[in-house]
UniProtKB/TrEMBL annotation:
Protein name, as recorded: Branched-chain amino acid aminotransferase
GO BP of this protein: amino acid biosynthetic process; carboxylic acid biosynthetic process
This protein's UniProt keywords: Aminotransferase, Pyridoxal phosphate, Transferase
CDD domains registered for this protein in UniProt: PLPDE_IV
PANTHER family: AMINO-ACID AMINOTRANSFERASE, BRANCHED-CHAIN-AMINO-ACID AMINOTRANSFERASE-RELATED
Homology family: Belongs to the class-IV pyridoxal-phosphate-dependent aminotransferase family.
GO molecular function, one term: transaminase activity
Cofactor(s) of this protein: pyridoxal 5'-phosphate
Organism for this UniProt entry: Candidatus Kaiserbacteria bacterium RIFCSPLOWO2_01_FULL_53_17
Length: 306
């Protein structure tokens, strides 16, 4: 089991995991009415540092805006949010890389199916940084489930209730003996994995589905695009057909908890002869260095926490 650290931020104070609880009558529990983000905190010689904290804060605020959760933003500046993350990391005295899960919960009791003007509570806890995909390479299956379209539950809002879609798709993949799924959008275009974005390489161009393909606007995805640009690899954000995965030179998944994971198989078809392709290997190495603050030209992404 993944280790969750005991000191938790909940409802404006530090407490313990056991005491950070929501009522069965709250909207968060009744309707999955919470929005969240998960961001990496890495340990280096200089101490702990958070990766793209500001972007995670912005995405969290945007998720709340999309859903209509309107009581959080005015009370929680980026500075206050950063201080709360710092407090949790400091209290737990970490000696390893961790993931920080920050969630805005709507805690009003039985307000009905609405979102505005309701009381919110922020929770922040940390857990050991265990990858959600096998680091050496993943086997994927096209899901029988489709990604929820923007006009039903928008994927760019990271809302807890919507993750039932990911659970259905991932469990279907596991039941069929795979590591994870490929979710297609309603038109049959490739969208993402259950909790990671996807890239393919064709003729030395790095291709990923665009923002309007019902996907989460992944912060790792953005980092990969920036790294590729900086090292002169051509990129394209466009629709990807499922059959392009079958003939791609390379495929990889990316996300905070997926890091950069090479994809070795899709629907019983080998990808890149089941090897880690050269562009995947290059991006992965650079990404891990950037994440750990080892690339001086990407220091803007790193926030020292201690
Ligand atoms: N898509 C989904 C559905 C996710 O849950 C995640 C993980 N947050 C991602 C993509 C990757 O996003 P990020 O790089 O910001 O972790």
């Amino acid at each position: 089991m993944t280790r969750i650290y005991d000191k938790v931020y909940f409802a404006d104070a530090m407490t313990t995991l056991e005491h950070a609880t929501l009522s069965v009558g709250s909207s968060a529990v009744l309707y999955g009415l919470s929005v969240y983000t998960v961001l990496p905190v890495c340990i280096a010689k200089e101490g702990a540092s958070a990766f793209r904290l500001s972007d995670h804060y912005k995405r969290l605020i945007n998720s709340a805006r999309i859903i209509g959760i309107d009581t959080f933003e005015s009370a929680w500046s980026e500075r206050r949010f950063t201080e709360a993350v710092k407090a949790v990391v400091a209290a737990n005295e970490i000696a390893e890389d961790v993931f920080v899960r920050a969630t805005i919960h709507v805690v009003d009791m039985l307000p009905g199916t609405r979102s505005r003007g309701l009381k919110t509570v922020l929770s922040i806890f940390i857990y050991e940084a265990t990858p959600i995909l096998p680091p050496d390479g993943a086997r994927l299956k096209t899901s029988v489930w489709r990604r929820i379209p923007d006009h039903a539950i928008p994927s760019r809002a990271k809302v807890n209730g919507a993750y039932v879609n990911s659970v259905l798709a991932k469990q279907d993949a596991i039941d069929s003996g795979y590591d994870d799924c490929i979710l297609l959008d309603a038109d049959g275009h490739v969208c993402e994995l259950s909790a990671a974005n996807i890239f393919i390489v064709r003729d030395n161009t790095l291709i990923t589905p665009g923002f309007t393909s019902d996907l989460l606007e992944g912060i790792t995805r953005q980092t990969v695009l920036e790294i590729a640009h900086d090292i002169g690899i051509q990129t394209s954000e466009r629709n990807i057909d499922l059959t392009e995965l079958y003939i791609a030179d390379e495929v990889f998944a990316c996300g905070t908890s997926a890091y950069i994971t090479p994809v070795l198989e899709v629907d019983v078809r080998s990808v890149a002869n089941r090897q880690v392709g050269p562009i995947t290997a290059r991006i992965r190495e650079l990404y891990l260095n950037v994440l750990h603050g080892k690339e001086t030209s990407y220091q803007r992404f790193v926030t020292p926490l201690l």
